Design the sequence.
């Protein structure tokens, strides 16, 4: 059984600070990793995907992947109140279709003005 | 703009009734998925399709069925609704089969009394 673990939170971060969200996974065969953002009452929206060890930056977002330690993280720099949402980590095997995608339960992030 | 739409957005029904949730996408994606999202469980895959006339069972398919007669639509049917099927249902699509990069619809909140 593939597992994707996230701290449910809430994680409270002051505005302007760095928010750090973590995700661990159990399947060593996992090769593709995704972060989705979900505002309350809305649908998930893909914000980052990462496939190789190391960091991937997109604007204020940085995804970090460490396959040896089986964790993936999302850093949000200069956090804004609009970043307050639940962040879902999703993991898949290499070349796997979305039918093999395993989602974590999400971390609820609150950015305090 | 291309989009993915679900209807109805909210529905209340009674135990034992048949319910169909519609999903329509205009991206011309071959790959479509139905998920349910419940507190404490995260997103779980119900059924998926990688093309016209192709349908497959996901992790939690019991009590649900889908059909794919064209590229744009993947309706989800609950043959005999049960209270355990009270949930928020999300339809999603993807451009490529071997990806976890999904585009989600707005969701359908179903309550079974």
Sequence:
């Amino acid at each position: 059984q593939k597992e994707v673990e996230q701290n449910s939170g809430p994680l409270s971060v002051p505005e302007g600070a760095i928010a750090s969200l973590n995700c661990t996974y159990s399947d060593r065969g996992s090769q593709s990793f995704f972060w989705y953002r979900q505002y309350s009452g809305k649908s998930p929206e893909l914000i980052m995907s990462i496939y190789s060890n190391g960091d991937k930056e997109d604007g204020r977002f940085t995804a970090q992947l460490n396959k040896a330690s089986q964790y993936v993280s999302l850093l949000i720099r200069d956090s804004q109140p609009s970043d307050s949402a639940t962040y879902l980590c999703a993991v898949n095997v290499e070349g796997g279709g979305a039918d093999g995608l395993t989602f974590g339960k999400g971390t609820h992030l609150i950015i305090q003005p | 703009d291309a989009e993915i739409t679900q209807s109805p957005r909210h529905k209340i029904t009674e135990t034992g009734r048949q319910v169909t949730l519609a999903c329509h996408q205009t991206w011309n994606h071959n790959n479509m998925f139905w998920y349910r999202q419940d507190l404490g469980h995260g997103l779980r895959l119900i059924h998926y399709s990688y093309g016209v006339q192709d349908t497959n069972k996901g992790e939690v398919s019991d009590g649900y069925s889908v059909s794919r007669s064209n590229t744009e639509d993947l309706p989800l049917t609950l043959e005999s609704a049960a209270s355990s099927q009270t949930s928020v249902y999300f339809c999603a699509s993807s451009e490529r089969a071997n990806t976890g990069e999904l585009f989600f619809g707005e969701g359908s909140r179903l309550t079974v009394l």
Q: What stands out?
A: Chain A has a mean pLDDT of 94. The longest strand of chain A covers residues 30-38. The radius of gyration of chain A is 13 Å.
